[in-house]
Amino acid sequence: MKKLSSNEVRKIWLDFFKSKKHHFLEPVSLVPVNDPSLLWINSGVATLKPYFDGRLNPPSRRLTNSQKAIRTNDIENVGVTARHQTMFEMLGNFSIGDYFKKEAIEFAWELLTSKEWYAMPIEKLYVTVFEEDQEAYDIWRNIIGLSEDKIFKMGRDTNFWDVGQGPCGPNSEIFFDRGIIWDKENIGVKLLKDDIENDRYIEVWNIVFSQFNNDGQNNYTPLPRKNIDTGAGLERIVSIFQETPTNFETDLFMPTIKAVEKLTDKRYSIENYFNPTPEQTQINTAFKIIADHVRACAFAIADGAFPSNKDRGYIIRRLIRRSSVYAKSLGINKPFMSDLVDIVISTMGSFYVYLKDKKDIVKKSILDEETKFLKTLTKGYEFFYEIISKDKVVSAKNALLLFESYGFPIEIITELGEKENIKVDFEGFEKLFEAAKVVAKNANKNKAVWNKQSKILTELKVESEFVGYETQSTIDSKVVFMFANDVEVKTAKSDEVVQVIFDRTPFYAEKGGQANDTGILIDGDGDVHKVIDVQSGPNGQNIHTVVVANKLKVGDIITTEVEESKRLLTANNHSGTHLLHATVREVLGKDATQTGSYNDENGFRLDISFSRMPTQDEITKISDQANKYISKNFKREVYFCSLKDAIEKYHALALFSEKYDSTVRVVKFSNVSSELCGGTHVEHTGLIEKIFITSVESKGSGVYRFSALTTESTIQEFLEEQFAKQKSEIIVQRNKFEDLKKVRPSKLIELLLKDIDSLKVIEKNFVKMKEQISEFKGNFKIYQKTTESEMSDVAIEEYKMLEPVDNKIILIDEILDMNMFKKISDILQNKYKLLVFEAYNEKLNVCVISSGDPKISAIDILKGNQKYEIKGGGNPKFAQGKIVKTK
């Protein structure tokens, strides 16, 4: 059999399907865009969901890709099993309503067995099918010509792909028999038939025949458009061609393992697979974990996810920490992972060329995280030895604490326990850990599911032209199709809500981060219908959601009017998004990567992945530079061209997370901003008037959201509203202290109160206004503490002059609060055996403090008050409560 490198395996796959008229899809970012149901891109098909569920039209009905993916639900198995990786690469071919079972199976067999391609020995290949899928069985048996002993009918658990709701269907898997050397007990095909985990029969291909729709209640109906979804793990196939025991001995990981060997006196042993020893197995596991984790971290950071304490960032942090722990077991006690990034890039960079441009930011992010964690790791070891010296056992709770707080994997904890002859409650840890995972899963669960395919929309071929680039207001349009609740209708009556398609429309459908247009329709009778939503259909038509005024029918000629003010403000904000994105990259550098945006008539937001929060000076520079570009009144340029020309000729910024058609639209403002975009924009930047950043906040996982406004009037309205809100809060504080002025006038408070009337809207920089108000509030807190201290001092001097009655002193005050009284009592309780404090204010508090005389109980006195019914509690030395009512 051929000896192929990983790059050759990938290239042959893609070349084969290109020869079969499949459109090649460039790999996209590991960070999902506009898909809150996913933390990471976790499969080759995950990026194609809008094509499969009918939301978007694919560039071709035949697609192929090689897509990186991350799965983190079983990190603990990485390095322990032969074929678990955190990040892996899926080779795929897909049919969106084009070919189906016969062609998909024929393609698979030709690629695997043809001498021109992979040339795998036919006698080494076995197949499984769903037990109810006789059609697939017959294709394998009668068309491909496999013998019956090579085809196994399997159950639903292994051969039916179902996500609970949405497209689903049976699947057929292809396995490669690596031979008896990987099957010491010579169990043979029983391993395959009984679905026993093994290293002999390796799955190399999985074809999903997506032919049903699950309504979420396990009711299955045929899909109007059947699809093929194929996945093949690159790492698995490479291990077969390179005849390695596991995926880790392939050219994808061994260069990294060899680099780690140079940092330690330990060595990785391939022979350990066949003749394992506990010690060498632990050493091999450490090498494999490091090689896997550094690769995953390098790609994740390059794609815009940075180490942090939640979501994706937490996963990256955990991988780095896990590597550091295992490195320590190899005797590596210094930061080292960042140096391995060069090896990862040299291994993967020929296909993922962008890694080279991201090298510096990846290395810096990993080094910073490693350096910080090594300090924590030292504390973790200290905590471990503190536990075992005290408890002589590591409880489940402490094991979980070591895992979550110090990054110690349970296997390392167990290993340390064995060395110290200390028992670790492994089973208890497993239960706690599973419970913690359930909590995390429920907390992050998103109920978003794949949209049900609409038979009407997927099969609808009526022509509909978008003319909204040319006009922003009124045109005459013909109603060519209507439907409601997925049923075609010819006529709609008053107050009904229907979806309408016109032969041509000026209404922009929501996409690309831009909100949809709204507006009205005026029919021949003068009735006015409302357009409340516009979405893009799978075949390119804009679908208008319309509230019918009186009557609407197919064939009507309608005057369509876009709500002009909303369209213009949205265009301002969309163009503002482009300019702000350009200046963000100018100021922060090209490592600042857009991960999402949204704009409508109310403003816009821009999400940027970056290694840290931008400083206030940087935010100011970004804002100032964007407004300089607005003042230059650059003209908007629009070009329709190929993706290659867009990038090379017009220097358009293309995002790894996006899919692009064969013809793209470039929106360009001078040499400042050039982006691929289908949205509506201003003709000149001067129409934006001004960009005003209202906030920059962390969204977790190294993503920072810029929120902003455009146009002078919108900004002025916002500032006045915010100023009124802040001023109101300050006045509340001032009023709270009016009575204090009677006790002790203060120059400080008079000065601060004067500032209330002098605060004006600071239009140049809202952040400065917020800082000034924050400083004002801070000064007020200082004043509050100073005043309380002064009042307490005065009160103490006054109360020291009082003579006790029956060994107690009763303090009654309308001004002092409980905190002040506690300070007074600390000083006076040595002078008096009993202090009783009553504050006659809105809180009506009572506090009793006893000097410690066993005959005098503070709680008894509080409960036995003859004058008031008091709700509260305490003990013999201290009790406090609130007066409920007078007795």
What about the largest sheet? 9 strands, mixed
Structural class: alpha+beta
| Mean pLDDT score | 84
CATH superfamily of the largest domain: Bira Bifunctional Protein, Domain 2
Shape: globular
Q: How many strand units?
A: 34
Radius of gyration: 35 Å
The number of distinct helices, counting runs of at least 4 residues, comes to: 25
% residues in beta strands: 15-25%
Give the proportion of residues in helices.
25-40%
The CATH topology of the largest domain turns out to be BirA Bifunctional Protein, domain 2
How many domains, as an integer? Answer: 6
Terminus-to-terminus distance: 98 Å
Identify the CATH architecture of the largest domain: 2-Layer Sandwich
CATH class of the largest domain: Alpha Beta
Low-confidence stretches: 439-452, 739-765
Word description of this protein:
By secondary structure, the chain is of the alpha+beta class. It folds into 6 domains: 6-241, BirA Bifunctional Protein, domain 2; 253-434; 455-562, Beta Barrel (Elongation Factor Tu (Ef-tu), domain 3); 567-710, Threonyl-trna Synthetase, Chain A, domain 2 (Threonyl-tRNA Synthetase, Chain A, domain 2), CATH 3.30.980.10; 715-791; 802-886, Diaminopimelate Epimerase, Chain A, domain 1 (Roll), CATH 3.10.310. 39% of the residues lie in helices and 24% in strands. The strands form 8 sheets. Strands 1, 2, 3, 4, 5, 6, 7, 8 and 9 form a 9-stranded mixed β-sheet that branches. Strands 13-16-20-19-18-22 form a 6-stranded antiparallel barrel. Strands 30-31-32-34-33 form a 5-stranded mixed β-sheet. α13 packs across α15 (426-444). It is globular. The model is unreliable at 439-452 and 739-765 (pLDDT under 50).
